[in-house]
Amino acid sequence: xxxxxxxxxxxxxxxGDPAVPGDVLITDDRIAAVARAGEIPVRRASQVSDLSGLxxxxxxxxxxxxxxxxxxxxxxxxxxxxxxVTTEINGNCGFTLAxxxxxxxxxxxxLVRRIFPDxxxxxxxxxxxxxxxxxxxxxxxxxxxIGHNTLRxxxxxxxxxxxxxxxxxxxxxxxxxxxxxxxxxxxxxxVYPPGVYSGTDEIVELxxxxxxTAVYASHMxxxxxxxxxxxxxTLEVAERAGVRCHLSHLKVADRRRWGAMDDVFQDLAxxxxxxxxxxxxxxxxxxxxxxxxxxxxxxxxxxxxPLLERLRSAGCRDRVRAQVxxxxxxFENYALAAGWENIVLAGSGTGRYDGASMAEIAxxxxxxxxxxxxxxxxxxxxxxxxxxxxMSEGDLRRALDDPRTMIGSDGLPRGNGGRPHPRGxxxxxxxxxxxxxxxxVMRLEEAVRRMTSLAAETFSLPGRGxxxxxxxxxxxxxxxxTVEDRATYSEPTAxxxxxxxxxxxxxxxxxxxxxxxxxxxxVLRARH
Length: 528
Ligand SMILES: [Zn+2]
Known about the structure:
Distance between the termini: 31 Å
Structural class: alpha/beta
Bound molecules: zinc ion
């Protein structure tokens, strides 16, 4: 690839230090030199790139990604690189695409088919999956947590019970194998089956296998009525297991609890003295997940076939109706927390209702919302996702204020079409455009630090996340006067303006605002 001298830009190096005009020399896949403007001789480079008027930053790290299948898509998905994202931490919310046990393939497919497009799911171990992904070609650098739900399904399917000693050993072995392959930590998704059936002790036992370089990241049991209790559980896991913890997509996901983010940070403050605690947010007031998450946990036990049978049963529907209408019900009750009118169908197999609210769909079908939900899930064979307008801007801003908050898109797997949440294509540019440029609630240098070096340090990615000699040439050059997030709820995949150049491992993936559709990403392995 030779050497390229990047001249004329203002450099924001990822450390949080003030921006300075500077030169950066890229040689092959590395940053070979960083100096003040005009100090790197042109003869050191085989080509010179003039970045006058642009701000040069380390490539952004999406710490909360679900792009596990992105390498497997035939067309390169450019939704992340177009925003300046060069590295993604996958395997969040308890789900990874490996390990898969031959005897529990059905349980695995029962869940992945609800949210991933069809692929050839022919691997078993985590190492085998990584080889498969790397062979297909990685659009961004690929790091991954290992998902507790996936480990549990491999060990015992979608059973609603505690694991036996043998099953606990199998889960632990799966985790250790993934850590040996460089997985950056363990993730849980305790609202989803089968994580929702696990107790705290089960998680502590697994988390205790994590080395000090790894992180425990949790999509907590409840982000609404019982948010503070769920945070307490997460901290208990971290304290008992002696590991660092990371609160995934921290939010107050219940209209009745808006304003509670202040209490959250008050709870966290004294605990931070003894425990490294970090968190990520996506800069939106709507959440998004699979439509089946509206159902109480008992509906999911055993997998797809029993779930479909329960959805057909009038008795089960009555029980669901009573529970989702009960403000004291002890599960993550999104229907009540958001309201059916604020839950919008994002994508489905047929696509016929994408963009309409559950209240509208039910009204149009002449049904009550629970019957409508049950019939929709049956008709779509469980393959449907939703967007829930369930958070407040005030709580989001409070979380963004904390110096330990990173940005994670939480963008759902690509390749499904529909009308997904704009966070997948907009999160990082939205931070620059809305929170840095327009509202000025974050300094550019601080926003960049959270999106780069803080993320690299938290998730054990040495040599990434800064503009520094010897670091990987993952870089983004943006015009901060025009940078604009254009992804909206009605046009969710619209790419940004103002992200002019992006390099991954020294190779251009965006050139003059246009994605090059290359796949220069690498598997990033934590060394534990
Ligand atoms: Zn999640």
